Amino acid sequence: MATEQDIMEAFAGESQANRKYAIFAEKAKEDGYANVARLFRAASQAEEIHARRLLRVAGLIKSTADNLSGGIEGETHEFTTMYPEFIKRAGEEGRKDAEITFTHAMKAEEVHAGLYKDALEAVTKGDDLVVKDVRLCPVCGNIALGDVPEKCPICGVPGAGFLTVE
Prior knowledge:
Elements: H1 2-30, H2 34-57, H3 64-92, H4 96-124, E1 134-136, E2 143-145, E3 163-164
Antiparallel strand pairs: 1-2, 1-3
Helix pairs in contact: 1-2, 3-4
């Protein structure tokens, strides 16, 4: 079973490196280092390849219904247990920046769980979700289906700033 633990540890590390390098690429581009940004993007994509392969090796890519159920479980844990604890600790330590970020994420995770439940209900019937647009708040990660709200109900960003996800 040590190999199974190693696979999951590697998946976590590769996943984090993927996101970290993608963000570093944005910063390098912002700082005027176009080629360094490309290098970070390439490394980010390489880490994503590793993460995808590890998830397959772990046998964790299942049916869409099973994947939605797992998503509901994970998102629910985050908004009911993980983030409330993090918010409390950040408040005790006077880390208002972290407290706000955790609060936004917690509220968005609750929305995600609800959307996954709706999707699971549709998939269980053999249907896809019926939506025109999937919109993403670029600040807090809130997801809205259909029309974009006038402002994000979680962080207050104007709805015009929401991204359309293809």
